[in-house]
Design goal:
Elements: E1 3-6, H1 10-22, E2 26-31, H2 54-65, E3 70-75, H3 83-86, E4 92-95, H4 100-110, E5 116-120, E6 132-137, E7 140-144, H5 157-174
Parallel strand pairs: 1-2, 1-4, 2-3, 4-5, 5-7
Antiparallel strand pairs: 6-7
Helix pairs in contact: 1-5
């Protein structure tokens, strides 16, 4: 099973960690950003990594968990022209973008390919009581409270981590990883 992750921030980096700690050894991750101090409250990076490429650093951190993992990363800004090509060989795609227009773009470009997509909506704020899973369409699952976005609320590690864990679990369950 090969899982693609679009974005290596709070959701993407934490989903990757959960997947690798569960036994997934093949990931394909895209992001173009660098690590900033403000990321450290919710992303799987460390203070000494500030200023480094998110995807290259995430790969190093994942290899510290599983040195035999096959983690392909690319420092790339995904768009309509390159998204399908980037994830063509992935069975599952995790949407981990910050902005809703990119979330929509990923779904519009990847969903017609028949891949399982796991997305997030409403992962900001500290309230954990309203985190839900919605199966929006067959093979499209969205996790979050669907209200508190990063545009209006701060993000905190507990909510981001819980949403990421749920997203990883959906990918593992629906992807057939777990024993029956």
């Amino acid at each position: 099973m090969k899982i693609g992750i679009a974005g290596a921030g709070g959701i993407g980096s934490n989903v990757a960690v959960h997947l690798v700690r569960t036994g997934i050894s093949e990931l394909k991750i895209a992001d173009f950003d660098i690590i900033e101090k403000s990321n450290l409250n919710r992303q799987f990076y460390f203070h000494h990594q500030i200023g480094a490429s998110k995807v290259e650093t995430l790969k190093k951190n994942l290899l510290d968990i599983n040195p035999d993992g096959n983690f392909y990363v690319e420092n790339i800004k995904l768009n309509r022209e390159n998204m399908s090509d980037f994830f063509y060989d992935c069975d599952i795609v995790i949407e981990a973008f910050d902005k809703s227009k990119y979330k929509t773009m990923l779904i519009e470009e990847i969903y017609p390919l028949g891949k399982l997509i796991v997305s997030a909506s409403g992962i900001a704020h500290w309230d954990l009581g309203n985190i839900n899973i919605k199966e929006v369409m067959p093979n499209l699952f969205v996790v979050g409270d669907f209200e508190k976005g990063i545009e209006n609320f701060k993000t905190y590690s507990p909510k981001v981590s819980i949403a990421a864990a749920i997203m990883a679990n959906i990918a593992l369950e629906k992807g057939g990883f777990y024993e029956k």
